[in-house]
Every structure is written in C-alpha cells, then in structure tokens.
Amino acid sequence: MLGTGVLGSQIIFQTAYAGKDVVAYDINDEILAKLPARWEQLKPFYLRDLPDATPESLDAAVSRIRATSDLAEAVAEADIVIEAVPERLDIKRDTWQKVSAVAPENTIFATNSSTLLPSDIVSAVDRPSKFLALHFANEIWRNNTGEVMAQEHTDPAVFEEVARFAEEIGMVAIRVKKEQPGYVLNSLLVPLLDAAATLWVRGVADIDVIDMTWRKATGAPLGPFQIFDVVGMTTPYNLNKDSSDPVKREFAERLKTDYIDQGRLGVATGRGFYEYGD
C-alpha cells in the first residue's frame, strides 16, 4: 500500500483484517511512526460497526501489517500495489514510475485516485495491461464498496482478478463499465459537496444550516460538511486550490487558513468543521 493517510491507512487495516499480509509504505519514517496510533483509533469503529470484530481479531490484523519507507522493499513481494498518494497527477505519475522500476513483473498496479482517470496515469507505468483503478469509500469497513475501473490497455483477466481481490477483503465489487471521472460514487457525491461549498463561500447559509437542511430534507445521515470531515480537508483543498473557478479557489483558501493550518483536518484529528469526541 503506497500512502498511509486517512484512506490509505483504512485500506491497509481492512486488508489485514481480511487476513492478508500488508506492507505499508510512506515517504519517511516519521509518518510511519504514527501508524500504531492510527490502528488504535480504528479499532473502536470496527468493534462498534462489525459484529464479528473482536479485540483479538483486530490485534491479529495489526500483526499482519509491516511498515517501511524503502519503496523497493515495500513492493518486493507484492501481488498487488494500491496507491493512495496525494491527488495530484504529477505526484501519482512520479510514484508509479518509481514503482515500475522496482516491482516484480507479475505485480498488479491499482490507483485509488478519486478524480483522475487511470488513462491519465498509465503512461507512467511499465505494464499497461496490469494497471487500473480500485477506488474505496471512506470508512471502508462499513461503506464497503470497491469500484474497479479499467483503461483501454487493461487485461480483462486482471480486471476480474482485482474485482475478486476487492471481494476477498470484504468489499462489494463495483465493476465500472467504462472510464468515468469520479467513478460511480464520486460522480454522485462531488456535485453535492461542490454545491455545499458554494453556498458557504457565497454566504447563502452557514455550515450547520446547510448540513441540517440536507439531513432533514433527504433523511441522509450526514450533511455535506460532515462528509468533508470524514474525507479530511487535504483532498478537497488539493482538488480546488488551482481551479479556474474563483469560488472553488476561495473555498480552498478557507480550508487552508481556517482549518488545515489550525490542525483541524476532520474526523481523523478530532476537529474539522465540527468537534469530535472519543
């Protein structure tokens, strides 16, 4: 697993919980040193949401995780490499070029990119037939979808192998029939989040009012800003900071100044648009 942020760490833990050995890679040991605390944060959610989770099964999951900042070591014996690095095309391409240079020939490559198409990235890999997208939703242990999306060079057998892998780690495999920015989930979700951000930036309504309106009128369990807190502030910031839309750029600036710079990164840090307890 490349990347140990909010979603990357969830993918790591869920895959290990499903019984597979996982190597967690990130760019330095300082980042990796935070992982044990992340596992302790995730355990109560598994105990709350999954009837079969026990302290023993969660400890066993942790025992199947190994962390390293050495990329060659991380992928040396990998059957599949899943990438969840920051949502920037240059970073993703650079990452996959480096992985291609050290990964075994049989290794399958999968990007978890939320907005970029696999065809945007495939030129950076040395095995186009084994490259595709595998996208997860946040809170992966209960929002358990795995969207599988190929690009034109993906071997159909690899596509099915990745779909089976998704099912093996407890996901409902969503076979996306053609490339679509945002897959199925984010094609539905992103317009909602963009509309909420616009309402806030333009001063139409306050955050709590926007969320309450959506919950009351639709019966949804979370409002859009609560969803932002689950996703974390970094992803929407990166997606909006260079936008040609001035409203989206202002939204990113507010995220940076009022939230990211203040350590309010969302549910993962206990503070975002809202405050969260234990």
Automatic annotation (TrEMBL):
According to the entry, every stretch annotated as the 3-hydroxyacyl-CoA dehydrogenase NAD binding domain falls at 2-177
Instruction: Specify the pathway.
Output: Lipid metabolism; butanoate metabolism
Q: Which InterPro entries match?
A: 3-OHacyl-CoA_DH, 3-OHacyl-CoA_DH_NAD-bd, 3HC_DH_C, 6-PGluconate_DH-like_C_sf, 6PGD_dom2, NAD(P)-bd_dom_sf
In this chain the 3-hydroxyacyl-CoA dehydrogenase C-terminal domain maps to 182-276
Q: Which UniProt keywords apply?
A: Oxidoreductase
Task: Note whether Oxidoreductase occurs among the keywords.
Answer: yes
Give the matching NCBIfam families. PRK08293.1
Q: State the family named in the UniProt similarity comment for this chain.
A: Belongs to the 3-hydroxyacyl-CoA dehydrogenase family.
Q: Provide the protein name.
A: 3-hydroxybutyryl-CoA dehydrogenase
UniProt organism field: Microbacterium nanhaiense
